[in-house]
Write a structure and sequence with these properties.
The structure is a single chain. By secondary structure, this protein is mainly alpha-helical. Helix content is 82%, strand content 0%. Helix 1 runs parallel beside helix 5 and helix 4 packs antiparallel against helix 5.
Length: 136
C-alpha cells in the first residue's frame, strides 16, 4: 500500500512538473529557443546556412518530440487505468510509471540536444544580440 501511495504521489509530482515546464522555459536562460532564433534571423544576421541548419534541426526534433509526447500521453492513460482498478497492482503501476519517466527523460534530453545544437550554430556576436533582443 505504501508503495502504491508513493507511486501516485510521484505521478502527481510528475504531472505538475510537466505543467510548470510548459509555462516557463528554464533552458532559455542559457540556451536560445530555436523558434525565436529563426524569428529574429534578420536582427541576428543569420546566414542562409545557419538558418537552414537551425530550421532542419528544429524540424527533426519537433517530429521526434511529438512522437514522444504521444507515447507519454498513452503511458499516462495506462497508468490512470491501472490506478482506477481495485485492487491496484503496485508492480504494474510501478512498471508503467518507470516507462512514463523514461519517455519524459527522452523528451528533456531531445530538447536539450536541439537547443545546444542551435546555439552552437550562432557566433558569439549573434548570441549576444539574441539575448539583447530578448531584453527589449
Amino acid at each position: 500500500m505504501k508503495k502504491l501511495l508513493f507511486m501516485v504521489m510521484a505521478l502527481l509530482l510528475l504531472l505538475s512538473a510537466c505543467k510548470r515546464e510548459r509555462k516557463t522555459n528554464q533552458l532559455e536562460k542559457w540556451l536560445p529557443d530555436p523558434e525565436k532564433i529563426v524569428k529574429a534571423r534578420t536582427a541576428l544576421a543569420l546566414t542562409e546556412q545557419q538558418q537552414q541548419l537551425i530550421e532542419s534541426s528544429y524540424r527533426q526534433g519537433r517530429i521526434r518530440y511529438d512522437s514522444l509526447q504521444r507515447e507519454a500521453q498513452a503511458q499516462t492513460a495506462r497508468l490512470e487505468a491501472i490506478l482506477k482498478k481495485h485492487p491496484t497492482h503496485a508492480d504494474s503501476a510501478g512498471a508503467t510509471l518507470k516507462q512514463l519517466l523514461t519517455i519524459e527523460n527522452e523528451i528533456k534530453l531531445l530538447r536539450l540536444t536541439v537547443y545546444i545544437y542551435c546555439k552552437n550554430q550562432l557566433t558569439e556576436e549573434q548570441l549576444q544580440q539574441y539575448y539583447n533582443t530578448l531584453k527589449q
